[in-house]
Amino acid sequence: MLFLVLFAPLVSASINKSNGVYIYEACSQLLNTESNNASQGDKEALRLWCLGFIKGSVDMVSLINVAVGEKMLFCIPKQVTDTERASVLVDYLQQHPDQWNANKSLLLLYAFAKKYPCG
Question: How does 105-115 read in b/e, with b if 16+ C-beta sit within 10 Å?
Answer without folding.
Answer: eebbebbbeeb
